[in-house]
Specification:
Blueprint (H helix, E strand, L loop, with lengths): L3 E5 L5 E5 L4 H10 L6 E5 L5 H12 L3 E5 L4 E5 L10 H4 L9 H8 L1 E5 L12 H9 L3 E5 L2 E5 L7 E3 L5 H11 L5 E5 L5 H12 L3 E3 L5 E5 L8 E3 L4 H13 L3 E5 L7 H9 L3 E4 L3 E5 L11 E2 L11 H8 L5 E5 L10 H6 L3 E5 L2 E5 L8 E3 L3 H11 L6 E4 L1 H5 L5 H7 L3 E5 L1
Parallel strand pairs: 2-14, 3-13, 9-10, 17-18, 21-22
Antiparallel strand pairs: 1-22, 1-23, 3-5, 4-5, 6-8, 7-8, 10-12, 11-12, 14-16, 15-16, 18-20, 19-20
Helix pairs in contact: 1-2, 1-7, 4-6, 5-6, 6-7, 8-10, 8-12, 10-12
Length: 421
C-alpha cells in the first residue's frame, strides 16, 4: 500500500516557491563520488526517495553516507568501496542506479550490476552505456539479468553514440576520467545536468572539455580528490510550478532557478498566453485573465528541445485550453500513461501512434485516479487543482521519487492537498 492525495480545488495559486536541487543532476554526481576514494560533500540535495535509494546502493557497496536533510548536504565517504556487485533490492528502485557501473569499473576494475528499474515509461536500454565501456577496453557479459564488466585498465578511445543518450554520456564520461589517454565522445547529450556532472568531475581533478556540446573530450587522470559541490536547480520541478500557475490562472514567483534551462518551457507558456517574466529573484509566472489560455502543439525532443519530462504536465494544461492541441512524444514510446486517467476526469484525448490529440474542455471533473509514474502523477495532481470536485490520487510513491514535499509546497501557495497514509 502507498499513500494517496485528496485534492480539492481552491482557486488560483499565489506566492513564492524555492526550487530544489535537480534530481537528475544529484544522482549522477553521487555515482561519481565513487571515483574519488575520498570524502565528497554534495550540496542542494533534494529530499527524495530516489536519493535515499541511491544512498542505500552506495552503502551496500561499502561506501558511507551522511545526509543532513534540513541543510540539503549529503556527504559520501567512498574510501570503503570494496564490493563490486550491486544488490538488486536497490538497483531495482531507480534507473539512475546503473550509472555506478562506470565509476566501479574505473575504480575496482570490475562491476556487476542488475538491469535497472525506475518508471515504466519505455524501453530505456543500456546498450549505449555498454558499447562505450567496451570501447574503453572493458569485457562485457550479460547473463541472468546482470551486466558484468571487467577491465585490467581502461584506455581512451573515440566513441560515437548512436543516440544522444544522457545516461550513456554520463557513464562514459565518468569511466573515461580515470582511463589512460584521451577519449573523444561524439553525438553526446547536451543537457544541463551533464554540464553539472562535468563541473563536479573537473573540480575533483578530471580533465573534461566540451560538456554541453555534442563533442566532449576527456583526458584521463591518475586519480581524483574529494570536493564540495552544489548541484544545479531542478528545471523540471521549476517547470511543474510554472504549469501550476498557468493551470490555476495564478501568480507564482520562483526562486533558485536558472532561466536559461527553462527556455523551451517559457516559450511554450508564452505561446498559450501565460506571462513569464525574468526578475532579480528568478521568474514570475502569471495569467492576467485578459486572454484565455489557448491550445498549442508540442513535440518532445532532447535538450534544448521541449523536455519529455514536461509533456504530461503540459497535457493537463492543454486539457482545459481553448482549441485543439497535438502533443507528439519522440523520446519515450510509452509516455502517455496519464491519458487514461485524464480521460476519467473528463479530458477529451485521442492517441494516434506517438501523438495525442487534445480537445480542450471547459472543466475537468474530480474523481479517483492513479499515478502510473513520476511525471504522470504530477500531471494528475495539477489537473486536480482546477477540477470540479475532489480528486483522490493514488500512487504518492511515484511523486515522491522526483518531488520534495510537493503537496506541502502547493498548499503554501493556496492549494488544498491532503496526504493520507
Amino acid at each position: 500500500m502507498t499513500d494517496k492525495f485528496i485534492i480539492t480545488p481552491n482557486g488560483p495559486l499565489k506566492g513564492d516557491v524555492h526550487i530544489s536541487g535537480a534530481k537528475n543532476a544529484v544522482l549522477p554526481v553521487l555515482a561519481a563520488t565513487l571515483l574519488t576514494g575520498q570524502d565528497c560533500v554534495v550540496q542542494n540535495v533534494p529530499d527524495l526517495s530516489d536519493v535515499e535509494a541511491m544512498c542505500g546502493l552506495l552503502e551496500s557497496l561499502g561506501a558511507g553516507t551522511r545526509w543532513d536533510r534540513e541543510a540539503g548536504n549529503l556527504t559520501v565517504f567512498s574510501s570503503g568501496l570494496e564490493r563490486h556487485e550491486a544488490a538488486y533490492e536497490w538497483v531495482g528502485k531507480l534507473r539512475a542506479s546503473f550509472l555506478i557501473i562506470g565509476p566501479m569499473l574505473a575504480r575496482l576494475g570490475r562491476a556487476k550490476v542488475p538491469l535497472p528499474g525506475g518508471c515504466a515509461i519505455g524501453s530505456r536500454p543500456v546498450d549505449l552505456h555498454l558499447k562505450g565501456l567496451a570501447a574503453l577496453g572493458a569485457d562485457i557479459e550479460h547473463a541472468h539479468g546482470f551486466i558484468s564488466a571487467k577491465a585490467e585498465k581502461l584506455t581512451g578511445a573515440r566513441i560515437y553514440l548512436d543516440f544522444p543518450s544522457v545516461g550513456a554520456t554520463e557513464s562514459i564520461m565518468m569511466a573515461a576520467s580515470l582511463a589512460q589517454g584521451q577519449t573523444i565522445l561524439e553525438n553526446c547529450a547536451v543537457e544541463p545536468e551533464i554540464v553539472d556532472l562535468a563541473n563536479f568531475l573537473n573540480a575533483a581533478g578530471a580533465d573534461i572539455r566540451g560538456a554541453g556540446t555534442d563533442t566532449v573530450k576527456i583526458n584521463g587522470t591518475n586519480g581524483m580528490r574529494g570536493i564540495t559541490h552544489s548541484v544545479i536547480p531542478d528545471r523540471i520541478e521549476a517547470g511543474t510550478f510554472m504549469v501550476a500557475a498557468a493551470l490555476t490562472r495564478g501568480d507564482i514567483r520562483l526562486t533558485n532557478v536558472m532561466a536559461d534551462h527553462l527556455k523551451p518551457v517559457t516559450a511554450k507558456l508564452k505561446e498559450v498566453n501565460v506571462n513569464v517574466q525574468e526578475t532579480d529573484f528568478g521568474l514570475r509566472v502569471f495569467h492576467d485573465n485578459t486572454l484565455e489560455v489557448i491550445a498549442a502543439d508540442i513535440k518532445t525532443l532532447p535538450y534544448p528541445g521541449f523536455p519529455t519530462d514536461m509533456q504530461a504536465l503540459f497535457m493537463s494544461l492543454m486539457a482545459t485550453a481553448a482549441g485543439t492541441s497535438i502533443i507528439t512524444e519522440t523520446v519515450f514510446e510509452n509516455r502517455f500513461m496519464q491519458v487514461g486517467e485524464l480521460k476519467r476526469m473528463g479530458a477529451e484525448i485521442k492517441i494516434e501512434s506517438r501523438s495525442a490529440v487534445v480537445e480542450g474542455v471547459r472543466k475537468l471533473a474530480g474523481t479517483q485516479v492513479c499515478a502510473s509514474d513520476l511525471r504522470a502523477g504530477a500531471a494528475l495532481m495539477l489537473a486536480a487543482l482546477t477540477a470540479d470536485g475532489k480528486t483522490e490520487l493514488n500512487g504518492a510513491n511515484h511523486i515522491d521519487r522526483g518531488y520534495c514535499n510537493l503537496d506541502t509546497r502547493l498548499n503554501q501557495l493556496g492549494a488544498d492537498v491532503r496526504r493520507i497514509s
